[in-house]
Amino acid sequence: AKKNLDNIIAENSDDSFVYYALFTINNDLLNVDEAKSNIEKATEYYKKSIEYEKENPQNYIDFATFLTEQKDYENALKKLQTALKYDDSNIEALNLCFYVNYILAKEKSSDYNREKAIQIAEKFEKEYPDKFKYMEEKRDIETNFNHLFFSHSKE
Predict the structure, then answer these.
(1) Residue 120 pLDDT > 80, yes or no?
(2) Between vectors from CA 123 to CA 122 and to CA 129, what angle results, nearest 5°?
(3) 82 partner at 20 to 30 Å CA-CA among 36, 62, 72, 74?
(4) Which residues contact 125 (CB under 8 A, 6 or more apart)?
(5) In whole angstroms, what is the distance from residue 62 CA to residue 48 CA?
(6) What angle do CA 27, 57, 97 make, to 5 degrees?
(7) How far apart are CA 6 and CA 86, in angstroms?
(8) Residue 87, φ and ψ in degrees, nearest 5
(9) What is the dihedral of CA 119, 121, 125, 127, to 10 degrees?
(10) Per residue in 76-85, pLDDT tens?
């Protein structure tokens, strides 16, 4: 199977869809023994996909989704910010951007990420009220996070 994948890459090295498809296949095949190697390979596929189609926001969103699954939230957020530069109303990117900011705010008690998450949620309320995926997290960040930030500022 690996030889077939390598042959496909060699024959289609300038086709970004090939890298996307191979990443998807590779990501689905991850197991404990090969995880690190496959993660590196998947990362390589996404970088190649972006290299060939720099202005396609979906490449950045898919890479950010993968990075989020790997709990690499900082880099996922960077990819999402790039995707939103190309399409600032992309629902999938906005939803994931909210979620990543929510996680970073929660993990780091970050006012910046909390505010960004709230800004994105407010954008959804105004522009796309039926397309927001994270209502529970929105309520959490608006209510439960307040005491965390106020208690940190008193210390």
Answers:
(1) yes
(2) 85
(3) 36
(4) 132
(5) 13
(6) 80
(7) 31
(8) -155, 90
(9) 70
(10) 999 999 999 9
HSE (side-chain half, CA atoms, 13 Å) at 115: 4
- Asked if residues 135 and 98 have their Cβ atoms less than 8 Å apart, the reply is no
Chain segment 60-74, per-residue pLDDT in tens: 999 999 999 999 999
Supply 135's token pair.
């209502």
Say what the alpha-carbon torsion angle 92, 93, 97, 98 is, to the nearest 10 degrees: -40
Q: How many CB atoms lie within 10 A of CB 88?
A: 11
Q: Are 42 and 27 in contact (CB under 8 A)?
A: yes
- 90, 57 in Cβ contact below 8 A? yes
**pTM score, whole prediction:** 0.73
| Angstrom distance (rounded) from CA 67 to CA 146 | 28
Task: Tell me the two tokens of residue 107.
Answer: 């993990």
